[in-house]
Amino acid sequence: MPMLKYLIIILNDASVSFCHYESAKTGKKEAGMISYDNLNKAVAFALKNNLKVNFLYPRFRPGKKYEKLIEDVEHVKIVPRKLGGVYSDAITVLEAGDLRKENKVTGTENIILRLSSPELKILPAAVKEIARKGGRINLVIKDVENFGDSKISEYRKLLAEISGLLIKKSGENSIPEVNFLTDRLMLESMNNCDAGITHLTVAPDGRLYLCPAFYYESGENSIGEIRNEINIKNRQLLELKYSPVCRICDAYQCRRCVFLNWKLTGELNTPSRQQCRMSHAEREASGNMLEELKKKNFKGAKGIEIKKLGYDDPFEIAVKNRYSIQEFKNFNS
Amino acid sequence: MSQNTTVKIDRPGSWEDGRAKNVTFVVTEDCQLACRYCYLVGKNKSGRMNFETAKKAVDYLLREEKFLAEKSVVLDFIGGEPLLEIELIDKICDYFKLKSYELNHPWFDSYRISFSTNGLMYSDKRVQEFIRKNKTHLSIQITIDGTKVKHDTQRVYPDGRGSYDNVLKNIRLWTSQFPETSTKVTISGDDIPYIKESVLHIWSLGIKEVNINAVFEDAWKPGDDELFEEQLTELADEIIEKKLYKEYTCSFFSRTIGHPYEQNVNWCGAGKMLAFDFKGDIYPCIRFIEFSLQNRKGIIVGNLDKGIDENRLRPFLTLDMVSQSPDECINCDVASGCAWCQGANYDFAETGTIFRRATYICKMHKARVRANNYFWNKLGRRLKTDLRETNPDTCQC
Amino acid sequence: MKKESKRTIVGKVTEEEKNEIKLLFERKNGLNELFRSLNDPGHPLYERIVKDMGETATRFQQWWNEKRDKYEWKSSKDGHWEINFNTCEISLVRSVSKS
Quick one: which of B339, B385, B281, B326 has its CA closest to B57? Predict the structure, then answer.
């Protein structure tokens, strides 16, 4: 079973969002800040448990005292565009509005790009730009819940277009990386977010959450205080083995966001129809792309096979063919 | 010897083998009784369905093509006490019949109307007229919990008076109208010593099928399982000595229970069935309506204006045994027949999930398995045949 | 002197044949009960229902006649046949005196 590897620490209520949730829009500089004591506790916890930290930054630099503490622990800074040039070791989160200024921002070879469905049309241009710089895009779609039939069909077209771009830019061993298309080319097993398993979040209130999204949804979602013995109730539901839909699925690039699961289906372990269909559209596009790349003698996806499927939502299979008890017992996370 | 004709004890009937769509109309959240074990913790006088809502529900059911996967339908009327709203129920059934006929809907040729009632209003003129109108499609179950002592221990009026005498008045009429009927008995703790005499008593009233459940709640004290086993063993002896197994059925004794699991199936049908409340909200079953829950909010999977949110049904439709059971249950040697209720699981779970099985019933199930083994082994010796059979993992709800 | 029913299995039909009569049986009952609910000659569906009732009753009887001829079941003046929908078995049910 995987163990805790890192902590996410939200420095301020208005810290940048790097995933499927929205953080607080406004926030006076000091008001929404995690207290120094709580930050100290969180950093100490990370140090004692050999955890790395992802710090989520607001639009301003925290004070010197805070920065000194941050530097005490191995970490990654995740910052909004405004701080993009400030830290050389940061990952920048860009929104649609930031993108046209993107080439002016230093330190943005690897970016997290948060877009809503109407903004996806700018994606090909962003991919071109990042490909030129040899960087990587991690796309986060902000409104997964809106992906009905017509949006899924548009998304499929977009994926095909971007696949074409990537194939053009690919070499014998390399391809510009965009998470939703190229991750699947490298994966032989699930590469999920694993919130609550490999990482936990410390919020500005000093308490622990499965991930930032749960904090922003409601403080009532806390899983407890920072302490040595962390007891996540019904933790097994975060594991792949306990998800009837996901454990039979090979859309390995899917983040399997437990927050979106919970929000849309009411259960942490059950993905929504939208999530599954988007991930399967991506998987299918990756498969098509792989076929084309093989024709070009691409060697960067050795041993990877992406078979054609007769469905676009593994839910259909989970309902039809019950997993056997033996398969469950043999399941290896 | 033919086992099926000679030994009837574990062969209850089920219409269309339980494959019909089960649709529950919660017509009222009110009841004349205040039964001590009742899971409907939030009964009230204000939650009453009106005809407009019920009509919308019928229209919705007949309109949606996805429901046609099930060739038959059971319209289940529940409360509270459903017969308090007999006039409404009558109107709903008339509307269903007319509409399904008008639309040439396949359910017109395959439907049943079902009630579970406390029986207090059974002889009411309006109820009797309703029965006359719908006789061939009707299944009515009156709950009588056993002997007067057992029944009145639990099934009481709000002032504490027992309801046995008033129910009994209607039992003869009911069994004469529905001779193949059954009743449902609930065991909840203090009533364990009355199990044997209660089953025999119910049979003596002409009710040939008794379905019994021990409650799923954390209601069991140390020693309850032993007492339970003792009662069932005594009942087993009585059934064998008096050859009652030829004519009567009792869900305590079944050839399918007490084996390791062979299949990964969910026990409960929540989500495959649907329940409508008076507000027009749709639930996976009545146990997910707020007035059925002690600790959690209701789980609404849709409403009659917007239809069903398929995402909310996905957990229910993919839920299987292994994903909700502790390892101890998955590996249990006597697992089959150990029941659970999805609504109760949700209510008792540490977090708001349906994927965690409550196991308060474990020791009681094991006691039942021992008594069940005793029954079939002893009966087999008497009849000079092996009556045990392998486990088909029958699924009931 | 009391009367009681005596039941003797006299034959069996195929699953398909059982399904035919089961559907007709359900429809016959459904139409009868719908008719009772409607009870209004002015209703736009009234004529259709009455016609349907007649046709269904005919088809129902026709099934029994056809199967009687096909299987040549044992019969009795004071008895009638019944089908068990679970087993497809046909029983001859006779009313006999009980002393």
Answer: B281
Helix (H, G, I), strand (E, B) or coil at A179: helix
pLDDT of residue B68: 84
Tell me how far apart the alpha carbons of residues B305 and B60 are, in angstroms, rounded to a whole number: 9
CA-nearest residue to C48 within chain B is: B102
Task: Check CB contact of A266 with chain B, cutoff 8 Å.
Answer: yes
Residues A310 and A246 in one domain: yes
User: Nearest Cβ partner of A319 from B262, B317, B350?
Assistant: B317
Count up the domains in chain A and report the number: 2
- Residue at B239 is within a domain: no
* Domain coverage including residue B123: 3-215+247-265
B contact test, residue of C15, C22, C24, C26 with most B CBs within 10 A: C26
Asked if residue B33 belongs to a domain, the reply is yes
Examine the domain organization and report whether A331 and A247 are in the same domain: yes
Confidence at residue B69, expressed as pLDDT on a 0 to 100 scale: 87
How many domains does chain B contain in total?
1
Q: Would A140 be classed as within a structural domain?
A: no
Q: Give residue C47's pLDDT band: very low, low, confident or very high (50, 70, 90).
A: very high
pLDDT tens, C55-82?
999 999 999 999 999 999 998 888 999 9
Q: Are residues A23 and A166 in the same domain?
A: no
Q: Return residues 52-81 of C near B (CB < 8 Å).
A: none
Q: Which amino acid is at A21?
A: Y
Domain with A281, as residue range(s), is: 148-173+184-193+234-333
CATH of residue B35: 3.20.20.70
Instruction: Quote the CA–CA distance of A153 and A237 in Å, as a whole number.
Output: 31
Average pLDDT over residues B118-124: 97
Can you tell me the distance from the alpha carbon of C80 to that of B155, in angstroms, rounded to the nearest whole number?
44
Residue of B nearest to C20 (CA): B109
**Same-domain status, A31 and A72:** yes
In whole angstroms, how large is the CA radius of gyration of chain C? Answer: 17
Residue A197 token pair: 């398993």
Residue spans of beta strands (DSSP E) within chain A: 6-10, 52-56, 75-80, 90-95, 110-115, 136-141, 177-178, 199-202, 207-209, 224-225
pLDDT digits (tens, 9 = 90+) for B66-116: 888 899 999 999 989 999 999 999 999 999 999 999 999 999 999 999 999
Q: Do chains B and C touch (3 or more CB pairs under 8 A)?
A: yes
The answer to the question of residue B65 being in a domain is yes
Minimal Cβ distance to B315: which of A233, A265, A323 = A265
Q: Report the candidate in A254, A281, A252, A245 with the shortest Cα–Cα distance to residue A140.
A: A254
pLDDT at A99: 75
Does the beta carbon of B311 lie under 8 angstroms from any beta carbon of chain A? yes
The answer to whether residue B288 sits within a structural domain is no
- Say if the Cβ atoms of C32 and B101 lie within 8 Å: no
Mark whether A and B touch (3+ CB pairs within 8 Å): yes
Query: What is the rounded distance in angstroms from the CA atom of residue B317 to the CA atom of residue C69?
Result: 48
Q: Which residues of B touch A319 (CB under 8 A)?
A: 317-318
Task: Please say whether the beta carbons of A5 and A177 come within 8 A.
Answer: no
- What distance in Å separates residue B180's CA from the closest CA in chain C? 14
Q: Are A156 and A217 in a shared domain? A: no
pLDDT for the residue numbered A26:
62
* B328–chain C Cβ distance below 8 A for any pair: no
Helix (H) or strand (E) holding C92: strand C89-98
Chain A contact probe: residue of B336, B355, B357, B393 with most A CBs at under 10 A: B355
What is the ipTM metric for this complex?
0.94
Judge whether A126 lies within some domain: no
Nearest to A244 by CA among A328, A181, A175: A328
